[in-house]
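Hi there. Long-time user, first ticket. I'm pasting a complex I've been working with (about 754 residues overall). I'd like to know whether the download I got is complete or cut off, because the file seemed smaller than I expected. Thanks.
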Amino acid sequence: MRALSRSTLGGAALAAILLGAAGAGAAPDGVIRVGSKSFTESYILAEVAAQIIEQVGEARVERRVGLGGTGLTYRALESGAIDLYPEYTGTLALVLLKDASLATPEAIRERLRPGGLTVSASLGFVNTYALAVRADAAERLGLRTIGDLARHPELRAAFSSGFLEREDGWPGLRARYGLTLARVEVMEHALTYRAIASGQVDVMDVFSTDGQLERLKLLLLDDDRHFFPDYSAVLLARREMTERYPRTWARLREVLEGRLDAARMARLNAMADLDGRRVSEVAAVFLGRAVPAGTGRGREILAELGSLTMDHLVLVLVAVGVAIVLGIPMGIVAARHRRTGQLELSVIAMLQTVPALALLMFMIPLFGIGKGPALVALSLYALLPIARNTYAGLIAIDRTLLEIAGVLRLAPLRRLLRIELPLAAISIMAGIKTAAVTTVGTATLAAFIGGGGYGALIVRGLALDDTATILAGAAPAAAMALAFHALFELADRVLVPRGLR
Amino acid sequence: MIAVQEVTKRFGATPALDAVSLTVRSGTTHVLLGSSGSGKSTLLRLILGLIWPDAGSVRVDGTPVEPATRDGLLARMGYVVQDGGLYPHLTAFANVALAAEAQRWAPARIAARVGELADLAGLDGAMLRRYPRELSGGQRQRVGLMRALVLDPPILLLDEPLGALDPIVRAELQEQLAALFARLAKTVVLVTHDIREAARLGQAITLLTGGRVVQHGTFRDLAERPASPFVTQFLTAQTVEMPGSPPGARTGG
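Hi, the file is complete. Here it is re-exported in full:
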């Protein structure tokens, strides 16, 4: 049992180290943290809000945009990791508060009050879920309403994961209209646009203010049984922030409430999605401000790349560093106590089977959002290859060599450092190399919880359906993985004893 | 003196040693002879305290080999295995120095001692900077011997020390070992399956088969007064020259 208690200690140490680094909790004075989900409209509204806050000048702005999903963003707000983000009344009522009777911003505001949150009035437009099909297919099959889909169970549907699971999404819709589509798949929204345009998918979920509808010649199916609730856009904020910065909150409401109709929002979305203009530019246009000259999305990305590279490097180095510090001792403990060791390794292996994104989500209630929780998750991920390779390297050592160490009367620590770890060095180094290279990839997911790094570009590129932006994040990540690989080839020459090579 | 009394050791159901007794007199070279599976290596490992007997006892100079006494007894023993058993990640010098380092000898003292042993083992000083895989089999074996001797223990235990060597090197090293053992006056227990080696090195020989002692005695005793037909069978299964034949003569092993 000693092995178990030691590894428990290790776990506690990990939590302590990373809690310190996480810095989750209430916003420091003088800063308003603006969040958004990772789709175009959310980015734009958040940026508009951020620019208004900057204009008022009561507080500085920190942008924590492109967070991965509704639940996550809402929890980030609850925990104080962000102060404000754009949300929709329907989502608030059905998904977050789970009460369909909350139809108006006022009713929702009352309900949110005890939890320390508040909402603005409607910003003016309704962005509801809708089902879209290609216009030519609609004509050919005679599709006009959602109910018409019941006659064509052979159609292939691809829905975003949120829509597929939410009660106000596919499950409820299917029940209401009695639909039996044979093939329903889950797909990232940005990819579904391409799939539907090329005819690989027939039906997808969209937002009614989507900037892409016109370009892709998509037709919205009529919701004649009024299944989809009212999704009025609102600003969702922490009351603490609205009370501390009353002028800012008043100004946000003054500029935004009732000022955005659906057509205007669709135009703003199209500016970003179709014209490839920067989100900050689109926001400036809406606010009637001078657009900073001479910069396009490409320049913006180039300017960001330096700091994103640093972000990414820090994520990888710290995560792998922590995993080395914890993983090697865990591997040693596992090799010393084989039976409890197997248990220990199974637990770490189980962590590995949790999808990376899910593991990141689990971190939110514990550590908030940002780099801290991303580091915890990445460290846990990097742990397995290092611990397992340390274990494998140690148990593979020739028994005679270990016996001789005993006969030569080497003390346990000397024996470990002078004999066992060097003999296992090739295996341990291979584990660290695997951990580092895969962490470079996994770290791109950190952006979903505001951890920064190359993933920020990938998330944004997906949201804006902009391949160039996705590649601007993916290509440097691949390059970094290759660089790490090369670096470790060199490190092998230094760290693996000459006699073993 | 090493006294083995009625020792039985089982691995699973099979007895590796069955009520084996023998005595190794101090300052002599005692060969444990037998084919593989005879239990000879198991006996050596029992003397080292690497494994424990199921019945019977092992005493080294009167002290029973037990977990509590093991460390103290190991201080008086050197252990050499086939092909040297060197650590591949350490140079020959570092391999030899290990036990002295563990006893916190000063570096200068270690260097002096290793130099002394290199002379004794007939190893060129330049070889000491090499890693084991950069050495020949014979050189590795010499380094293994040096490592066992570094703290100058009175007892030397060798498990098939020359088993991995080709016949020429093997014969040469046998001669050198014989001279060395005589000169150092160590108590030596040497495990081998090679009759020639037993004849050349062993002042006393214990022939084992299937975990039982077949015969104790000198080589001449075994050759001239075999305790059972097995002894003769074992001796004649390998081509043997009697002690005194010219060194370097090629024989089967």
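A couple of notes from our side: The CA atoms of residues 25 and 182 of chain A lie 46 Å apart. Confidence is low (pLDDT under 50) at residues 1-27 of chain A.
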